[in-house]
Every structure is written in structure tokens, then in C-alpha cells.
Amino acid sequence: MKRDVGIVACAALLAVATAARAEGEITSDTAAQFYDVRSPTGETVLARRRVTTTLGVSAFDLLGKERSAGQHHEPNLIFRARLRYDADYGADAASASPTSLDKLVPGFSRGPVDIMYGYVEGRRFVGGALGFRLGRQLMTDALGWWSFDGGEVKVTTPAYFAVEGYGGLEVRGGLPFSGAAGRWERDGVSRGDRSGYDAATYPGFLDADVAPAFGAAIESAGVSWLSARLSYRRVYNTNTPFNGAPGDALAAPPLVAGPRLSSERVGYAVNATAPKVGALQAGLVYDVYAGLLSNVYATADVFAGRKVTVSADFDYFRPTFDADSIFTFFAAEPTADLGLRAHVDATARLSASASAHVRTMETQTAPHLEGATRALSAAGAIYPSNGVAFNEGGSVQARYRRLDTTAQLRATGNFGDGGDRVGADLYVERVLETRYLLSGRVGAWQWDDKLRPDRSAVNVGYAAGIGYRFAPRSRASFEFEHNANRLVGQRLRFMLWLSVAVLP
User: Fold this and answer.
1) Can you give 464-485 as a three-state secondary structure string?
2) Based on the number of CB atoms within 10 Å of its own CB, is 161 exposed (0-12), middle (13-18) or buried (19 or more)?
3) Domain count of the chain?
4) Could you tell me if 446 and 424 are in contact, meaning their C-beta atoms sit under 8 angstroms apart?
5) Radius of gyration (Cα) for the chain, nearest Å?
6) Which of 82, 271, 364, 418 lies 20 to 30 angstroms, CA to CA, from 243?
7) E runs forming strands in 198-291
8) Calpha distance 299→338 (Å, rounded)
């Protein structure tokens, strides 16, 4: 491996050294899929033999102190880790070989190993004011999901707020134990492990390198009905940038070398709840590099009695990209979603919900006075007369649950200028003698592609499964799925699941 992940290794060693005195838990989830992607003639286009497995380890109370029911404010040290292996044995080995240019898929790996997280966490140190994490960790706030290797320190004050600071290296695809692709890094740049590639092979596929990052946050603390958080994050690129056009035999000499900005964003989120009235969630994200609001969202829930909840949602999103991406030079038009939802618990066993939404998509109706679109204007580019396109849709669901049976019916429709999709499915699961699991699903979906009418079709499918529950949190199951439509013909898929939880 090219680069060190010493932070994660140190966290694991510390946990192993002390876990003998701690309570712990081991969990594992495995899913196997076997299916072929075929053409309508029956010819196999892609063969998929996928196995995805995760292994989780948790160790609690690493300090080994005895605790009674009234001693929940003592310092505590815990360890958590989860490893994922995601392999596709059906994929052609040439797809991952830099010497097979006719089949190579840059960045593809047949069996990537990913440490999803692995960290030591300290709680309630220094009189309960100090908390920290060390290792690979996931963060989620108004800025979205994010992963980094490093450290985080959080200080909780008596004045109902906490201050947090963190720093380290962003987890990116192509780095050790990061999987085949970076799931949480900014879009717009193709990066990965270029081991075995020469300079003329896909120069636009960049060699991943360390990405220093740091951030800070201020959030509310100690207020049960209010949660608010202001976040700031900055990430740097250090790899060699690509300055040639896609398809160039060689990359041009870099215009910028060394550390440079990858992303810089500020976000704020608030969540307030009045137990007998309702709840309000809202947030926004400002992209400092792009100089614009990239996301604004709000959700309002009204508790209309003990069994009815009515909600309204608004979500404005404008895509932004890594500062190295060519997409930062082009106008990215935003979308906005407005939705209404209602949920009713009719009885202890029966519940129903319904929703409706409208999406607006802004489109460019005239050339900009600067940037790349000036060339489009000179070339006589054609722009639509209407600057806003609309999509709309809705869904209804009903669920029935009792001790041994779950049944759920769902119907959804989405409609727009580009096409429509409507359909429904019914799912039923039954538990026999507390251990044997039976499940079934049947559905029909129709889509109408108005831009390519020949691609319109109706799909009918069903699935049947059987399983065995050998412990409260451990089960094994098998499922067979069959779908048919005129575009792909018959499609069969076999799936196996195994979930295990062990308490040492």
C-alpha cells in the first residue's frame, strides 16, 4: 500500500490493549447477489457475482471502572470500528488492469477493502466538559456526510453551548482502506490509485493523495427542545492537477502545484421540538469557493392530535464541485422541491401516509456575459424560452403490523415534461414459530420516456424469500427475484443475507 493509515492503526491497538476489561459487541452483515444483465435477445452483457460483508467491533468502558446506576457522569472511553469488503467476482479482471485499455474502468477494483470507521472516543473528561475522538470517523451535519482520519476535540460549557474543532486527512478513493471510490469527497474530479498506469493512460484519472482538512463548529448543549449547530470546513488538494482536455494523450504541465483549496463551506442547522405542537428543522449551506448558497432546506411538522402528523418540506439545491473540477467554470442551475406529507396511525396495527411534491428545475434561457457560455452564444446555441421546468408527483402507503406479520402497500407516481413513471408494489413478511421467516413482494411499474418513446415500457416483477432467525439479532435468509420488461427481457437475481450479532 502506498500510504499510511497510522491513525486508524493506533486506535485499534489501543482498543485491543484495553478491551479485555471492557464490555463489547461484534456484528457482521453479509449480502451475496447473483444476477446477469442481459439484452432483450438474451445475450449476457454483464455478469455480477457480488459479495458485500461488514464486520463491526465495539468495546465499551475501556477504563474498566465499576459503575452503579447513579454514576453516569464519570469519564468513559470506548472503541468502535467497522470494516467492509465489497467484491464482484463476476467482473472481468481486465476491467481493473491498466494494461487492458479496451476494457479498463479507471478506479475499479474487484475486491476493495474499506474501513468505514475506526476510532477511540473519550466522553465526560475534565469534569464532564471534554470529549474527543481519534481515528477514522464519520461526521454528519448541515454540510452532509463526511469522513476523515484525524482527531476531534469538543468542549461543553455551562452556558448551554459546546465548541468543537477537528483536523486530519479527508478519506478519498484510492487511498489505503478507503474502498474503490471516495463516498464523501466533493464531486467533479476522478481520483484513485494510479499504480501500474503510465502517463498516457487516462491522464484525467488523477492519482489520489493526502487531503489535509480542518473544521470547527459551535452547537447548542443541554437544551432538550433545541438543537442548533454552526459548522465550518476547509479541505486542501495536494495531488498533481490535470490541465488537459479529456482524451489528450498526455496531461499538460500543471498550472498549480502543491497544496491548494479543494472545498470551503459553512453550514447551519437547527431543530426545535414542542412535544404537543410540532417540530421545525431548517438549515443552509454556503459554498465559500463558489460564492453562493448551495443548499437551503426546511421541514415543519404539526402534531394534529396523538395519531396524525402533517408536514411540509422545502429543499433548494444548487450543485457545487471540487475546486479542481472543470465544472466550477460552468453555470450549474438549481432545483427546488416543495412537498406535503401526512401520516395517520389509525390503530395500533394499521398506519397510512400520503405525500405530494412539486420540483422546479431552472434552465438557462440566454447566454451569460462571461465564462464558457460566451463561446456557446457565438456558435448560435439554442436556449429554451421557459426558464423553469416542472415535475410533480405523489405517493400513498399503508402498513399493517402485528407480532408475526408485516404487510405494506405502496403506490407512487412522478410526472414531468421529460417522462412519467407510475407503479405500485405489495410486500408481506411473516414469522412462523418466532424463528422461520417468509417474505414476498409483487409489483408493476410503467415508465413513459417522452424524449425517447421507444424506451417506454412496463415492468412486472416479484420476489420470494425464506429465512431463519437463530438469535434476536442474528438471521440468515435467501431471496429470489424475477423482473420482466420488453427492454431487457427476463432478469433473475438470487440474494443471500447473513446478519450476526455477538455479545462476548
Assistant:
1) EEEEEEEECCEEEEEEEEEEEE
2) middle
3) 1
4) no
5) 26
6) 364
7) 206-207, 212-220, 226-237, 260-274, 278-287
8) 10
Spatial separation of the C-alpha atoms in residues 56 and 117, rounded to whole Å: 9
> 409 near 398, Cβ under 8 Å?
yes
How would you class 229 by CB atoms within 10 Å of its CB: exposed for 0-12, middle for 13-18, buried for 19 or more? buried
**Residue 361 placed within a domain:** yes
Residue 122 Rama label (left phi>0; alpha psi -120 to 50; beta): beta
Q: DSSP for 156-185?
A: E-TTSEEEEEEEEEE--TTSTTB-SS-SSS
Whether 24 is in a domain gets the answer no
Query: Which triple of cell numbers denotes residue 248?
Result: 489528450
Look at phi and psi of residue 208 and say left if phi exceeds 0, alpha if psi is from -120 to 50, else beta: beta
Q: State in Å, rounded, how far the first CA of the chain is from the last one.
A: 33
Sequence-ordered list of residues with C-beta below 8 angstroms from that of 296, at least 6 positions apart, any chain: 283, 284, 285, 314, 315, 316
Q: Which three cell numbers stand for residue 427?
A: 410486500
Residue 307, SS3 per DSSP? coil
Q: How many CB atoms lie within 10 A of CB 2?
A: 12
Note down the domain range covering 307.
292-401
Domain assignment present for residue 395? The answer is yes
Mean pLDDT in each 10-residue stretch from start to end of the chain (504 residues)?
41 44 84 83 77 93 63 83 91 84 84 92 92 95 94 96 97 81 82 84 85 97 94 93 53 60 96 94 96 96 93 96 86 90 95 96 66 48 68 96 94 93 97 94 95 92 96 93 89 93 79
Establish if 152 belongs to a structural domain.
no
CA distance 362 to 388: 5
| Residue whose C-alpha cell is 455551562 | 158
